[in-house]
Design goal:
The protein contains 5 helices and 29 strands. With 421 residues, the chain is mostly beta strands. It has 3 domains: 73 residues, Immunoglobulin-like, CATH 2.60.40.10; 74 residues, Immunoglobulin-like, CATH 2.60.40; 209 residues, no CATH class. The strands form 10 sheets. A 4-stranded mixed beta sheet has the order 3-9-8-5, with no helix packed on it. Strands 10-16-15-12 form a 4-stranded mixed beta sheet, with no helix packed on it.
């Protein structure tokens, strides 16, 4: 073997050097083999009758794979993240969608799978709003419910002459008709699944009455209305003076009121804000004076009240004046207890629920002179008296359609309507 020697000048030594390179073979590091197998795509289970939003669930990806969701059929769908196998998908009710899940690898090999997603519909609910009866004027605003997303509505006039809807597709559209006419309207809501819901309302417009005018001794003015052969006040009397200018006594105390023997008036519940529109409450002694009515007018007799009742209802009983329907026809369309039927006011009489003040007909003192039935009852005096029973009154009530007649003690407080001489 060949050796190398090096002389050391310092020590005179000779050092033998062995070969340093013992192995000159080159080592090779192998790289991993590429996985070029075709990837697997699984878009998950088909889904039907989905409401709102759903989860889509494709298979997990292997290392080096990437994927993407795509909507291949259907409109209006949204995928929350198209690159994730687990994502959320929303679509349009009534629509069917095909989604494709495509997986690719680094060898440019791909695999795809599809899933079907079908969206169902929530059945629509239609609410046309409350009936609108005896409306003033000839137009009103409708008040149906709004259609939800992917629903639409339509108004239709199914009964009535000459009605017009400004925009039949708007739930709160304006409806116009004729005075003294009623209409039936339907509000129909449709959805994308061809399902419908229908609700109806009745809209009615009041007659246009031709009112006259009357003033009392104090200058209070009242509307008047001709009904058949009679002309009536269309408002309750509210004067605090007799027609000779003398004042009528105002009595607030319950006990004093119940024991009076002369004319007096009061406001319901002793509250002057009830003056309009309800007028005052008078005991019968004010009528006995013969001076409570405006000049040229008088308190109606029982026979004159009966004429009015028979005009409203030809089948009313004439011996004991009572009608099953005249009450509603003579009631005002407002000013009554909301949970009861309001009137139709077919003749412009506009009867109001002014209530009454009790007299002394109860045995217990706690009820003497108390106020009762505002917005629930309208009670009016007649001039007619039945000895030992009191004076005849004519009454209508909020939750009743009839008009009845009975006797009241003279110290009761009732409303007054005058009739023209």
């Amino acid at each position: 073997m060949h050796k190398n020697y090096i002389s050391s000048p310092a020590c005179g030594l000779v050092i033998l050097l062995f070969p340093l390179l013992l192995n000159c073979k080159k080592e090779t590091i192998s790289s991993p083999t590429k996985n070029c197998a075709t990837p697997i795509a699984n878009a998950g289970q088909d889904q039907f009758n989905v409401v709102g939003e759903t989860n889509i669930a494709a298979n997990y990806l292997d290392t080096g794979e990437k994927a993407k969701w795509q909507i291949v059929s259907g409109t209006g769908g949204i995928i929350s993240d198209i690159t994730k196998p687990f994502s959320k998908f929303s679509g349009t009710p009534g629509q069917n969608y095909t989604l494709c899940w495509t997986v690719s690898n680094s060898c440019n090999k791909t695999s795809s799978d599809t899933v079907l997603i079908g969206f169902g519909c929530v059945s629509p609910i239609s609410n046309a709003g409350p009936d609108q009866l005896y409306r003033e004027g000839i137009s009103t605003t409708l008040a149906a419910n709004y259609p939800t997303i992917n629903e639409y509505g339509r108004w239709t006039i199914v009964r009535g002459i000459g009605g017009h809807i400004a925009d039949s597709s708007i739930s709160n559209s304006t409806f116009t008709g004729y005075a003294d006419h009623s209409y039936t309207l339907t509000w129909t809501i449709f959805n994308n699944c061809n399902e419908t819901s229908v609700d109806s309302i009745i809209v009615g417009f009041k007659k246009k009455f031709v009112y006259g005018s009357l003033s009392d001794i104090e200058g209070n003015t009242y509307k008047t209305i001709k009904i058949g052969s009679q002309t009536w006040m269309a408002e309750n009397l509210r004067t605090t003076k007799y027609n000779d200018g003398n004042s009528i006594e105002l009595v607030s105390d319950n006990s004093n009121w119940a024991n009076l023997g002369h004319g007096a008036y009061c406001w319901y519940n002793n509250d002057i804000s009830n003056k309009l529109p309800y007028g005052a409450l008078y005991n019968w002694y004010t009528i006995q004076t013969g001076k409570i009515s405006p000049v040229g007018w008088h308190i109606p007799t029982e026979a004159e009240w009966l004429t009015l009742v028979l005009f409203a209802d030809s089948n009313a009983m004439d011996k004991y004046p009572e009608s099953q329907i005249a009450g509603d026809k003579l009631k005002a369309t407002s000013g009554w207890y909301d949970e009861c039927n309001r009137g139709s006011d077919e003749y412009g009489f506009a009867g109001l629920g002014g209530g009454y003040r009790n007299g002394n007909s109860y045995e217990t003192t706690e009820f003497l002179g108390i106020f009762i039935d505002k917005d629930l009852g309208g009670l009016w005096w007649s001039e007619s008296v039945f000895p030992g029973a009191g004076a005849r009154g004519f009454n209508i009530y909020a939750c009743e359609s009839d008009m009845v007649s009975n006797y009241h003690s003279f110290c009761y407080g009732l409303s007054i309507r005058c009739i023209k001489d």
